[in-house]
Structure formats: C-alpha cells, structure tokens
User: What shape does this take?
Amino acid sequence: MILDELAVPIVLAPLAGGPATPQLAAAVSNAGGLGFLAAGYLSADQLRGKIEQARELTGAPLGVNVFVPGGPSSPAAAEAYAAAIAAEAHQAGVDLGQPRFDDDGWAAKLALLTVQPPAVTSFTFGCPGPAVVAALQAAGSEVWVTVTTPAEAELAAAAGADALVVQGSEAGGHRASFSDDPADDAGGGLGLLSLLQLVRSHTSLPLVAAGGISTGEAIAAVLAAGAAAAQLGTAFLRCPEAGTSQVQRTALAAATPTAMTRAFTGRLARGIRNQFLDTHSHHAPAAYPEVHYLTSPVRAAGRDSGNPDLVNLWAGQTHELSRELAAADLVAALMSDARAALQAAARRYASRPPQ
Ligand SMILES: Cc1cc2nc3c(=O)[nH]c(=O)nc-3n(C[C@H](O)[C@H](O)[C@H](O)COP(=O)(O)O)c2cc1C
Assistant: This one.
C-alpha cells in the first residue's frame, strides 16, 4: 500500500476547477506526501498532459481523482433556476451558460488511467463497479473511494476498494456523497471525527481522513483516531504552486464563515459565504452538472473582475488558518507540528499513572 510507504502521512486533496496543478501535486509528493491531480472538468487529453507534466517534476507516487457520473436532471429545474439568477448574469454583463448534462468524460478517463496507471486512482460522487476497480488494480493502480457515511464505506469495500477517503462535513468543495439528495440536508452530514469512528466500526480498510484539517495538531488528531493519513485541500489553496484565483486567495485569508450550497453547481458543496450563495442557496435545485454549466460564465466574470460575490469560493471550515507558504514548506511545518502534538499528548498521559 502506498500509505505504508509515505514518508509523511499527508495527502493533497484533489482540487478540481483550477487549484490542482502538476506543480502542486509534484511538490507534495516530493516533500514525502502524496500529491493528487484532479481529473474533474478536464478532457482526457488535458488530463494526460497534466499527468505527463507532473511526472516530469517528480518520480514519486501520484494520485488522480475522477468524478463518478450521475444521471441527467429534469430540464425544468435548471430552467426555473436560470430565471432566478438572470439578474446576476445581467449585472455581470454575461449570458448564462447552457445547462447541459455530461458524464465528465468517464470512459475516456478510465481508458487513459488503465493504460497509464497512477499509483492511486480515487473516486468521488459515487463508487465505480467492481469491474472498473479490478481493471485499475490489474493495471497497477490502487483504488480509493471517498465516502461520507458508513453505508457508503460498506459499498466501497464490497466493490473492492483498497482504501477509503473519509470526508467529514467540514470539508471544502463538493460533498463526495454517492447521491445528492436534498432530503438528507437536514442532518447536516457527519463531522470527521464521528465519521472516522463509525466507518472504522464497519471496515478494516485503511482510512484517509479529510475535512477541516489545517494544522499539524489536527493531523495528529486523525492519526490518533486511526486514520493512516490526513488529506488536506483548503490548507494548500494559498500555496504559490496552486492555481487558485486571486479572489479566492483573498477570501481564504479572512474569517468569513462557510456554508453548504447548491447555488453554484447544483450539487452540495461547502464554500465561503457571499452574496450569490446567500441569495440563491434556498432555491437552487439538485441538478449537477447542469447548474455548473449554467452559472459558469457568471463565476468566470466574477473571477476576472475580482468580484468575490459571484464566485464559488470553495473552502473548508478552517480556511482562515490556511497559509501562504510553498507546498514543501507547508508539508514540513505541518509534519513538525503533528509530531510535536503526538509527543505532547503521549507525554501528558505517560506521566500520570492511575491513582
Ligand atoms: C477548491 C476545491 C476543489 C475540490 N475538488 C475536488 C475534486 O476534484 N475531487 C474530490 O474528490 N474532492 C475535491 N474537493 C474536496 C477535497 O477532496 C477534500 O475533501 C476537502 O478539501 C477536504 O477538506 P478541507 O478543504 O477542509 O481540507 C475539493 C475541495 C476544494 C476546496
């Protein structure tokens, strides 16, 4: 298992939509962690190019993350939502995008990853079938599946996954849930520590903990809770190697709270609260990727003009702790703090024998 070989138990979260770059992935792998590329929103050809670029920058293992496609939504849902957000498009001086369905190039990406297997192929938004899992494993790739509930963990284990990425509700970006059902929203999703304990009681697979981890102390906490490694996304968004937009970099550094929303993409995700999120979360439909394409020109206009109120500012709950540091320096600092935290906890109780 790759997880047994890492010098540092830090996995870079896949960060689709711009932040994931070959430079960032390679820097984390070169620092002893596991770098990840995000296949989401790229064509298979674009993905091939990024993998080749990353391989020029590191000989260490790398992961690639793929979106598992769902099915099309009723066109009426996106049409009604288009009317609700027309004012923002008008104000930004752009037309709304076409709310179309696609499967994010599923077959072409799997074909590529089976021919040029990365050390790890991970999946989000669902679990690939056992045949897909077995084909990747036969090609030489480990298969990791991101889960948000114990039931999803059982499905992934049954499909043959080698490890599970356990994503707590603190996490930035899209929820990895196998289905995006608004009926589940009321519960708010399981936080990372609860989820780690519950998933561990259902499977003995290695677990990678994700969601709200921005410090070495939090890495120590998930290792103590039984995770084999911590996966950090938001903490790396301000690294110079990341392709994060300037509006998002600025927003990450402030203490503005986050919230869950379907307003930008039609799929539940955590982002920093802004005007678009606050205005449209209550009526945004579950219609992904149709709403993603619909709002795309508005979000791009927001990024280009530096207006954070129009942009999906994906971030986890601890984003204000993110640091503007080179990725290698960040990994080293996090690991040094994690070691110190583990030693401090061990010392504290080793020195207190029961009375
Ligand atoms: C900007 C951004 C993009 C993301 N893109 C992906 C992705 O392409 N695939 C994926 O599995 N998870 C994606 N995630 C979720 C991360 O994998 C991970 O669960 C999350 O970053 C962990 O929480 P944290 O951000 O608080 O560290 C993304 C998160 C962010 C913030």
